[in-house]
Every structure is written in structure tokens, then in C-alpha cells.
């Protein structure tokens, strides 16, 4: 493990490589204990760079031999680099051969070549290829790859790598081989190989362009029955990219392989995507609606990378959002298009924004805040963040909205015309979108718009409206500011598209006419705020309007507007923009919760929610036209994390207590309505994971949770009994897990037998057992009872910290997703956290560093939590042999 050499890499230090690698021939003799790798490269000097030695990256490799042009040569090892000084001069290509060995079965970091079960997998992004062979392991070096795999035939019957299978056959001693050739040049991080006992679901397809392709989803033999949804998702993604962007599959064969040991969700290796099983395997009996939706989205995401990432890649890792922000935007659009109806699209948008606000906004306000295009990093693996991914997607979405759907498609076309086959920058992307749309507000404000890439922090937009009855005008003043972030004390104004409408007091949409315009133009428009303060005057406004601002969450900002409760109730009841309708309900709930948190009044059993709010929630729940999925979102209170983000000083126990009191009140006062919602929405027919039926299941599940919660205080036995029955007879995992969650969440006596039964039923299905752990670690805390059960579960025979999915299901679910249970006043949650970070760091620094982020926001905590948190972080930081990954996170946290 590399330790202690924590030097930062700076974006502005970028230099083109001194050598290019035109082609690579890799030969692998696969053996878990000692794999031999022969790497034969054709290199040439980069004529644009002053002559210098060749420095190849390599980590944890045993070097056996180096040949230049077939003859031995001198070399040096300097740290993690192999340095060659005596290379041919001039610009002619030359051949370099390097023999190394590595030990895949000792690779617990799951980066480079590793073994999972009895199967070999690779993970090379960002810098895993250097753990396989010495190389110019940087994304701007794009080479042609030919790969020869050799292994024991009985143990490793399937041998896969990128591109096309050109040859395969038997070798002496029970071994066999396969030769693969990738027709496209690629950076090393997109290299992959897989070898083991796997089986494939196959599908032949013909593209719109008339080309035939073979699609394969490779899994362990017992899992073949769980691959239909992944294959359907892949076919849908291929068709979508052709229709929406005119981008076709550029390979004869496209493969997905699933592994149960994976640090992340999935990886877009060219033609050979490697996936966490969680994002491949699903049947209605074992996977929830959310799992089905995630599979569709992740399969889409990795497939879309084939163009945005693989064909056009990143010049350096600071440009990571070039591929990630764009590809998340593409997968979000894909999921919306698959969801279909406008309402289902809005539901997806709300879910995406919820992720942004509960995970990215805190990141952008904490010690790890960084721009979408960072300026420096110590460990690049720490920068696969919600900022790079989700905020990056919002920045692409704003460009899309500023140039329009067709304008964006034209911009993408120009981007590929200019950059196909190259490694480029975020600037190159924005430039292409703007150049294709010279008259757009994006092109007009291009320089200022790019600040979204360079400045960290969440901008705040303050809106102030003034109605003049005599003049029939409505004046809207928008001001913006952005808080300081590490290394960036002062911010320049952002370009902020503010989509808006105006509602009359009765909720009607008013026609919009700005001062100086001849006539009204529709009921919705987008103002482009680009200065610190701008004023807009609407004319012919016959009554004081209610502004509906930032529709569809048109920019990743915090909007402050002094709405009255009545105005928010109007928006909740009438806004034509579904996002803002939901947002109005969230604002009301937030306001009530924050007031209760600030007061010292006891909240348990108290009526904190005013009758008007409860009535509005009832109206939404009973609304004849609204979709169930939308209702479920409106009826869900803002999370504890989101509430905490609104506070200067956070008492996490008070936040937890208040939110629980509000939930209990909604459960109590809407009891009859929840019962009605359950009766109306629960179903027992055939399972389909489409948006409409999963929405009904989501609402029925919430109803059941609320009915069980209410039974806690009312002593009702009917609903818990019904829930247990539902748990036993449920025909799909969504309904079964919802029923189990309702019992566990309410702390009902039936929860224990249900948990035992669930384990018994699914003990052989790792992904379901992950859910079983996660449910227990994430349940509502009552008097500090979650931590003891987490500790007991750590000793369960099924628990294994080395498996990232299992570690996430228990340790992360507790530390990162259950604030009420984690932030204990006796500091035991933090002690546990620090122990687990250190334990994980000894074998998997990437996963450890993610867990280390759980206390990012420690400095906002009230005492005694604040001091206890700092002490726990300091204890980690004091460990001498920390990985660079964890060291960077805790150093920033304490800075
Ligand atoms: N590029 C992948 C995510 C990924 C990143 C890093 C990994 O290992 C360190 C693995 C996967 C994606 O965006 O899906
Ligand atoms: Zn990605």
C-alpha cells in the first residue's frame, strides 16, 4: 500500500506526455498467486516536448526484464516509476518490452487485477492499470490494444477482454488462450480483462444503421435468471442514444460482466463493462423497484460512456466531470424518457434534485468542497464525488436548457466532429455547445458561465417581489452570492437560469410580459441572472401574483424567497410546475421543522404541524388526479440531513426528535387517509417495474409505514398484524421489504420474527442479505438501540468487511445514512466510525476514504458532538501509516 508520499497534483501543472504509445500487445499468464504480464509497446517521442527520459508508472509490480528493440537496456526505479534514459533518439517509433508479475489474490484494494470468488477482474480507473504493468498511465495517452490471455481451461473457461475475439484455442497442459483486439484506441484506464467460470445471456441486435451486434451479460452460472432486466435496459439504452443523439454502438460485441466485489457501481471499460452485481441482477422476488430503476440508469450510464468518455475522453483527471457530469446528464434524461409521462418525468427530476441537495450541497459547504473541475488533488480516487457527478450534470443541464434541446443536440454533434478520438477538457465541451449556438444566452455569457466549472460552493439566490397595483406591474429583484470555500474566499457572479411563472391568487397561470415587450409571451420563461443583482419588471399584471421560481430546479442554487404560508399553500395546490409544487410542500415542512428545532418546547406527542399543513397534505394524498409516486414524494418530510444543512449549529438529536414528532403527527392525524391510501394502492397482480406501478407500491409502502408507526402509540394491533401478513405473502421484494421496513421502523414486536424469517428465506442471495443488514443499520433509533445491534451484526457469520457491498450495507448505512443513531451524545458512534475507517484502510483505502467522509460536517455540530467528532477524526489522522486516500480526507476535515 502506498503511504506517506502525499503530494498534491495541480491542474495548472499539466504537461503533454513526452512519449506517445501507439500500440500495446499484452500477454497474460493468469494465475491467482503469480500472474505473468508481458507488455510489448510501440512508442515514439512526442515532438512537441523537449527530449527527456521515459518515466513509466508502476505499483506493487515485480519487474523481471526490460528490452528495447529486443535488447537489454539499463533502467532505474525511482519511487513508483520505471525510468529509461537510453532510448533511441529522433521521432521514429521503437519497441519496448516489459515483463512483470503481480499477485491478484493478494489485491484487497480491488484496483488493478484482482480475484473475486474464483474469477479474475480488473479495475483500471483511475490509476489501476499501473498495478498491472508499467505504463504511461494517464488518460491522454491513447493506444491500440491487443491482448492475449492464457489460463487453465477448466478453472477459467471464459477469457474476455476489450474489443473483438480474434482467435482462441487450446494449449498444452490443460491450458487455453484467447486473443482480443480492440478496434478503437483508448486510454489505459479503459482496459479490462475477465477470466473465470461465467455464463452469458446473449442477444443479437440490428442497429438503425443496419449493423449487427452481439450483446452479452456475463454472470455466475446460478445468476442467469436474473439478467433479463439488465439486457432489456442495455437494448433500451442503445436505441435511446441512436434516437436522441444519433450515436450508435461502434463495436461488434458489447459485454457486461457482474462481480460481487467492486468498489463502485460499475465501470465503462471499452466494450467490456464491469458491474457491481447490485446493478445487474434482478428478479421481482429479490430486487425492489428502486433496484430495477437503478439498474436501468447504471446500465444506461455505462453504455452512454461509450461515446462520452471512451470515444472522447479526458485530457487529465481534473477534467473528470467532462465525462461524468455529461454522462450523468445523459442517464438522467434516459431515465426520464423511459419513465414516459410528464408526471413520471417530474418524479425522476425531484429524486435527482433530492440527491443533489442532501449529498452535494453539504459537500460543497464542507471541507472537501471543490469545483466541478478541481484545481488540485492528492488522491484522484477521492474526487469521484457528487460534485463531479451530480453538480457536473446540473451544469450540463443548464447548458442544455440555455441552448434548447435541438441546440444541445447540435452542440453534441459539433463536440464529436471536433474531438472524436481525442482527450480533451471541460472548456472544449462548453465551447462546442456555445459555438453551435452562437445566438444563445450561453454563447453570450460564455466566460461567466464557465465559472460553474471553476468556482466551488452553492450560490444563493435571493428573490424579492414587489407588486404595484396602480401600475399593474410586478417587479422581481434577484440577487446572488456564494459563500467562501476552501482556497476560494471570493466568488464572481454565476450565470443562473431562473425558470419562472406567475400564479394568480386562485392559482391560475398568468401571462408573462416584461417591460419593453410588445405582447405577453406564454406562461413560463427563463431569466438569465448573470450579475450580482438584476431587476425585472412584468407588466399588465392584474393582481398580486405568487411567483413560482426556479421551476424544474433550473439551476443548482439555494433559492431564498420570503413566501407567506398562504402563498406556499397556493403553490402546493396549483403550481403547473410539478417540481415547484413538491418544493412548496417541502418549504412549508422545513419552516415548521426549523421553528420547532429552534424552540425548546417538548415535541413528543405534541401537535407541531398546524392544521392547514395537515389538511394540505390530506388534499394531496386524496387528490384524484395526482400520481401516486408524486404523492409519496410530497408526503415524505425533508430528511434529517437536509434539515441539518439549514442550521448554523446542529444538535442532531433535536433534529431527529423533531422530525420523528412530525412524522408521528402525520401518521396520527392522517390515519384514515393512510388506511384509504393503502387500500387504494396496494396490489397483488403481476409485477411490472414501470413508473406507474412502482409509484403505487411506493405510496402503499409509505402508508403501511405510517400505519405501523401510529400503532406504536395507539396500541393498535390490526395494522401491524396486516403488515406481517403482507410481509409473509408479498409477491415481490418491493412489497415484502416495505412491510418488513414498516415493522422494523415502528420497532414493533413482530419485527424480530420477520427479520429472522427474511434471513432464512434469502440466506443464499448476497444482494438480499445486504438489504437485511442495511435495514437494521438504517432503522429509526430509539434510545440509542441501533449501535448495539450494528455491533452485534458485525459478528454475524454473514458479515464481511472485505466485501464492499456488505461493508456499505452495515457500516455505511449506520455511519453515513442514519444521523439520529450515529450522532450519539456519548460519542460511541464516532468511536465505532473511526475504528471502521482504520480497519478498512488496512486493505481497501478507496472504501475507507469514502467512509471517512461521514463526519465532513463536524464543525457545525453543537457540543458535545463537535469535540467528540474532532477527537475521532484526530485519532484517525494520528495513525502513522494511513493511506493517501484517508489522509487527504481527514487532513482537509481538520484544516
Ligand atoms: N467511471 C465509473 C465509475 C468508477 C470510477 C472509479 C472506479 O474505481 C476507482 C470504478 C468505477 C462510472 O462513472 O461509472
Ligand atoms: Zn460515469
Structural features, described:
- The chain is α+β, with helices and mostly antiparallel strands and 895 residues long.
- It is 41% helix and 20% strand.
- The strands form 9 sheets. The protein has an 8-stranded mixed beta sheet, with no helix packed on it. A 5-stranded mixed beta sheet has the order 17-18-19-21-20, with helices on one face. Strands 29-26-25-31 form a 4-stranded mixed beta sheet, with no helix packed on it.
- Helix 17 packs antiparallel against helix 18 and helix 18 (718-729) packs antiparallel against helix 19.
- The mean pLDDT is 97.
- Bound molecules: O-methyl-L-tyrosine (0A1) and zinc ion.
- O-methyl-L-tyrosine (0A1) binds at residues 123, 125-126, 263-268, 301-302, 324, 381, 384, 846.
Task: Provide a quick synopsis of the model.
The chain is α+β, with helices and mostly antiparallel strands. It is built from 28 helices and 31 strands.
Q: Given the helix and strand composition, which structural class is it?
A: alpha+beta
Cα shape:
globular
Major sheet characteristics:
8 strands, mixed
Share of helix, binned? 40-55%
- The number of helical elements comes to 28
User: How much strand content do the residues show?
Assistant: 15-25%
Bound molecules: O-methyl-L-tyrosine, zinc ion
User: How far from one another are the termini?
Assistant: 25 Å
DSSP E strands, number:
31
Mean pLDDT: 97
Strand order of the largest sheet: 6-5-9-3-2-12-15-14
Please compute the radius of gyration using only Cα atoms.
28 Å
Which residues form runs of ≥5 with pLDDT under 50? Answer: none
Amino acid at each position: 500500500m502506498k503511504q506517506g508520499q502525499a503530494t498534491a497534483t495541480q491542474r495548472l501543472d499539466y504537461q503533454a506526455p513526452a512519449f506517445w504509445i501507439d500500440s500495446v500487445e499484452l500477454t497474460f499468464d493468469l494465475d491467482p498467486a503469480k500472474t505473468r504480464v508481458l507488455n510489448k509497446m510501440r512508442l515514439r517521442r512526442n515532438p512537441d516536448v523537449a527530449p527527456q527520459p521515459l518515466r513509466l508508472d508502476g505499483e506493487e509490480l515485480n519487474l523481471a526484464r526490460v528490452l528495447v528493440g529486443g535488447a537489454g537496456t539499463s533502467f532505474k526505479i525511482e519511487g513508483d516509476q520505471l525510468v529509461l534514459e537510453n532510448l533511441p533518439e529522433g521521432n521514429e517509433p521503437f519497441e519496448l518490452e516489459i515483463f512483470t508479475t503481480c499477485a491478484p489474490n493478494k489485491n484487497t484494494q480491488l484496483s488493478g487485477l484482482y480475484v473475486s470468488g474464483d474469477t479474475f477482474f480488473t479495475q483500471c480507473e483511475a490509476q489501476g492499470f499501473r498495478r498491472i504493468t508499467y505504463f504511461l498511465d494517464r488518460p491522454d495517452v491513447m493506444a491500440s490494444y491487443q491482448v492475449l490471455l492464457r489460463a487453465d481451461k477448466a478453472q477459467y473457461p471464459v477469457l474476455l477482454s476489450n474489443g473483438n475475439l480474434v482467435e482462441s484455442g487450446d494449449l498444452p497442459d490443460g491450458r487455453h488462450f484467447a486473443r482480443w483486439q480492440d478496434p478503437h484506441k483508448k486510454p489505459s484506464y479503459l482496459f479490462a480483462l475477465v477470466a473465470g467460470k461465467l455464463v452469458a445471456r446473449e442477444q443479437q441486435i440490428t442497429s438503425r444503421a443496419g449493423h449487427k451486434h452481439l450483446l452479452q451479460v456475463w454472470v455466475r452460472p446460478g445468476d442467469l435468471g436474473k439478467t433479463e432486466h439488465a439486457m432489456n435496459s442495455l437494448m433500451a439504452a442503445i436505441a435511446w442514444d441512436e434516437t436522441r443523439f444519433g450515436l450508435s454502438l461502434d463495436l461488434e460485441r458489447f459485454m457486461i460482466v457482474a462481480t460481487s466485489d467492486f468498489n463502485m457501481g460499475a465501470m465503462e471499460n471499452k466494450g467490456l463493462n464491469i458491474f457491481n452485481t447490485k446493478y445487474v441482477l434482478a428478479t421481482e422476488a429479490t430486487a425492489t423497484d428502486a433496484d430495477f430503476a437503478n439498474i436501468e440508469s447504471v446500465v444506461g450510464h455505462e453504455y452512454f460512456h461509450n461515446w462520452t468518455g471512451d470515444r472522447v475522453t479526458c485530457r487529465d483527471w481534473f477534467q473528470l466531470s467532462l465525462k461524468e457530469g455529461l454522462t450523468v446528464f445523459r442517464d438522467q434524461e434516459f431515465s426520464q424518457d423511459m419513465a414516459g409521462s410528464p408526471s413520471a418525468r417530474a418524479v425522476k427530476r425531484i429524486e435527482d434534485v433530492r440527491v443533489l441537495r442532501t449529498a452535494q450541497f453539504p459537500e460543497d459547504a464542507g471541507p472537501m468542497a471543490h469545483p466541478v473541475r478541481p484545481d488540485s488533488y492528492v488522491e484522484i480516487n477521492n474526487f469521484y464525488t457528487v460534485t463531479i457527478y451530480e453538480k457536473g450534470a446540473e451544469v450540463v443541464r443548464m447548458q442544455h436548457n440555455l441552448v434548447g434541446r435541438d441546440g444541445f443536440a447540435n452542440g453534441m454533434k459539433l463536440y464529436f466532429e471536433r474531438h472524436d478520438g481525442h482527450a480533451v477538457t471541460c472548456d472544449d465541451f462548453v465551447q462546442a455547445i456555445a459555438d453551435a449556438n452562437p445566438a444563445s444566452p450561453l454563447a453570450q455569457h460564455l466566460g461567466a458561465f464557465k465559472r460553474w466549472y471553476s468556482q466551488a460552493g452553492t450560490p444563493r439566490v435571493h428573490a424579492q417581489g414587489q407588486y404595484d397595483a396602480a401600475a399593474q406591474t410586478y417587479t422581481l429583484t434577484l440577487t446572488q452570492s456564494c459563500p467562501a470555500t476552501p482556497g476560494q474566499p471570493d466568488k464572481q457572479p454565476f450565470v443562473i437560469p431562473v425558470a419562472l411563472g406567475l400564479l394568480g391568487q386562485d392559482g391560475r397561470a398568468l401571462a408573462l410580459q416584461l417591460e419593453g415587450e410588445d405582447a405577453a409571451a406564454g406562461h413560463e420563461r427563463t431569466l438569465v441572472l448573470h450579475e450580482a443583482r438584476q431587476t425585472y419588471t412584468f407588466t399588465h399584471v392584474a393582481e398580486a401574483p405568487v411567483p413560482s421560481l426556479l421551476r424544474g430546479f433550473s439551476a443548482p442554487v439555494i433559492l431564498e424567497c420570503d413566501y407567506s404560508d398562504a402563498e406556499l399553500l397556493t403553490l402546493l395546490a396549483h403550481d403547473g410546475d410539478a417540481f415547484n409544487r413538491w418544493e412548496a410542500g417541502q418549504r412549508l415542512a422545513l419552516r415548521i421543522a426549523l421553528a420547532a428545532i429552534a424552540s425548546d418546547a417538548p415535541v413528543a406527542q405534541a401537535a407541531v404541524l398546524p392544521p392547514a399543513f395537515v389538511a394540505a397534505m390530506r388534499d394531496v394524498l386524496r387528490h384524484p388526479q395526482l400520481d401516486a409516486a408524486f404523492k409519496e414524494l410530497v408526503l415524505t418530510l425533508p430528511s434529517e440531513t437536509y434539515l441539518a444543512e439549514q442550521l448554523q449549529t446542529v444538535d442532531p438529536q433535536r433534529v431527529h426528535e423533531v422530525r420523528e414528532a412530525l412524522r408521528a403527527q402525520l401518521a396520527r392525524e392522517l390515519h384514515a387517509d393512510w388506511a384509504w391510501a393503502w387500500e387504494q394502492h396496494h396490489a397483488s397482480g403481476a409485477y411490472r417495474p414501470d413508473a406507474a406501478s412502482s409509484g403505487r407500491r411506493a405510496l402503499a409502502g409509505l402508508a403501511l409505514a405510517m400505519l405501523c408507526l401510529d400503532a406504536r402509540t395507539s396500541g393498535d394491533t390490526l395494522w401491524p398484524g396486516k403488515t406481517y401478513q403482507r410481509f409473509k405473502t408479498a409477491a415481490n421484494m418491493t412489497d415484502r421489504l416495505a412491510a418488513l421496513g414498516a415493522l422494523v421502523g415502528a420497532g414493533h414486536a413482530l419485527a424480530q420474527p420477520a427479520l429472522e424469517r427474511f434471513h432464512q428465506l434469502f440466506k443464499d442471495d448476497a444482494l438480499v442479505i445486504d438489504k437485511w443488514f442495511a435495514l437494521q443499520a438504517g432503522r429509526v433509533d430509539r434510545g440509542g438501540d441501533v449501535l448495539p445491534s450494528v455491533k452485534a451484526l458485525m459478528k454475524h457469520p454473514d458479515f464481511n468487511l472485505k466485501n464492499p457491498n456488505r461493508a456499505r450495507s452495515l457500516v455505511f448505512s449506520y455511519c453515513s445514512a442514519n444521523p439520529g443513531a450515529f450522532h450519539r451524545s456519548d460519542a460511541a458512534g464516532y468511536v465505532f466510525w473511526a475504528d471502521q475507517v482504520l480497519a478498512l484502510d488496512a486493505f481497501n483505502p478507496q472504501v475507507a476514504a469514502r467512509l471517512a467522509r461521514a463526519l465532513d460536517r463536524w464543525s457545525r455540530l453543537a457540543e458535545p458532538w463537535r469535540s467528540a467528532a474532532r477527537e475521532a477524526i484526530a485519532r484517525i489522522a494520528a495513525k502513522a501509516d494511513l493511506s493517501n486516500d484517508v489522509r487527504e480526507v481527514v487532513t482537509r476535515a481538520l484544516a
